[in-house]
Amino acid sequence: MTSIAHTIRTEAEALQAAEQFAQSIAAGALARDRDRILPFREVEQFSQSGLWGITIPREYGGAGVSTGVLTRAVLRIAAADGNFGHIPQNHYYALEVLRVGATHEQKQFFYGEVLKGKRFGNALAEIGKQDFVRRTQLLREEGGWFVDGRKFYCTGSLYAHWIPTLVTAKETTREGGGERLYLAFVPHDAPGVTLTDDWDGFGQRVTGSGLVEFNRVRVEPEWVVPFTDSFERPTTIGPFAQIIHAALDLGIGRGAFEATLPFIRDNARPWIDAGVDRAAQDPLLLHQIGEVHVRLRAAEALLARAARFVDAAQRQPDEDSVARASIAVAEAKALATSASVLAGSKLFELGGTGATAARHGLDRYWRNARTHTLHDPVRWKYHAIGNYALNGVRPPRHGAL
After folding, report:
1. 191: Cβ–Cβ under 8 A, 6 or more apart, which residues?
2. Which of 93, 10, 90, 15 is nearest to 58 (CA)?
3. Which residues have CB under 8 Å from 328's CB, separation 6+?
4. pLDDT score recorded for residue 194
5. Which pLDDT tens digit goes with each residue over 200-232?
6. Is the pLDDT of residue 134 over 80?
7. How many C-alpha atoms does 229 have within 13 Å on its Cβ side?
8. How would you classify the pairing of strands 176-187 and 224-226?
9. Taking 80 as the threshold, does the pLDDT of residue 176 lie above it?
């Protein structure tokens, strides 16, 4: 039974809570990854700390923290264990969907749930290739509303109390028929919901990213929030989602770098041609350490800059402010991707063969970075950035940019 969570009131308190939680989970990260121990206890501790409610607007009882504070918190926690930066990502995304498109009554209810300690998971991705996807449906019948379909890569769903589910519903208008998207909040224990822990990716192993099936699951109309509507006008849903991904990637990279330094000092051996006594004195190694450090710091600077653009667009959303936010976030995400993968790879190159020993578990940084950075292709972010810079073309509005 979930107890009432602590309510964080200020940005300083949010950052302090993130630091404390990061320290509490760091020691167990290796064992959880190695043995695939699902961290139910730690996730409960995470949400009870109040961190899952920090983006709720102040008028609804939350701290209403800036995007910069949120990303700093995610980054710090992901540096300690990348799984914990990922588990609440779609929770924060759902809160933003509510902020943008929900009614006052829906906000009151769902924000209240979160402040009580309830967690949102996600069921967004459909199963199958693009041309063969059977969309999860919202069936609005005389006997009630029902969700029917199957989703995969449902990060956080195993730990969630509510599973925000992307559904399509048939609409009839004066112009004819069609389908529109909604986000239906489904109780995890509702009759007809089946959660399967089948995530077998080589990274992000304990994020609870399994399969969720909905067999005519009844939902109440007040649990359904418009989704298509929120992208037909300029909103920050897309850049907000993506900046959390960027913070997570960068946090994993920072964790890898922080693991690299003591390993080199204590375990690595200098190359025979370096003419030095310790690996930490190797001039070519120092050059490589400097390169990783600079790339991570540059990505941090772009992330902080992007957060300011997102905050500005949230305050005054229009075509231009949202486009600027999307491009700034795309720039940060592009560099965070390459920096995090580089940091995870250089850990081994500079640490030497000894760094690959299973007892150290250092491979989790590269595996986590490589797995999570596949979320939304960076090549399309470079395309959007280039098209905007050269041709002034605003990026498309959707959750992946």
Report:
1. 217, 218
2. 10
3. 239, 302, 305, 306, 309, 310
4. 98
5. 999 999 999 999 999 999 999 999 999 999 999
6. no
7. 13
8. antiparallel
9. no
* Angle in degrees, 0-180, between the axes of helices 363-372 and 319-351, rounded to the nearest 10: 150
pLDDT score recorded for residue 130: 59
Contact 208, 121 (CB under 8 A): yes
Spatial separation of the C-alpha atoms in residues 342 and 350, rounded to whole Å: 12
**How many alpha carbons lie under 13 Å from residue 46 in its C-beta half-sphere?**
26
Q: Are 256 and 365 in contact (CB under 8 A)?
A: yes
- Which tens digits make up the pLDDT trace of 266-277? 999 999 999 999
Structure confidence by residue, pLDDT tens digits, 32-67: 999 999 999 999 999 999 999 999 999 999 999 999
Helix (H) or strand (E) holding 145: strand 144-154
Residues 274 and 296: their CA atoms lie apart, in Å, by: 26
Q: What local confidence, expressed as pLDDT, does residue 178 receive?
A: 83
What does residue 21 show for φ and ψ, rounded to 5 degrees? -70, -40
Average pLDDT over residues 62-81: 98
Q: How far apart are CA 313 and CA 245, in angstroms?
A: 18
Does 132 or 251 have the greater pLDDT score?
251
User: What are 18's two structure tokens?
Assistant: 């993130």
176 DSSP β-pair partners = 173
Return the SS3 of 62: coil
Average pLDDT over residues 11-33: 98
What is the layout of strands, in order, in the sheet containing 210-219?
193-196, 210-219, 144-154, 137-141, 162-173, 176-187, 224-226
CB atoms under 10 Å from CB of 81, counted, come to: 28
Q: Which residues pair with 195 in a beta bridge?
A: 212
Kindly list the distances between the CA atom of residue 266 and the CA atoms of 190, 259, 262, in Å, as whole numbers in the listed order. Answer: 52, 11, 6
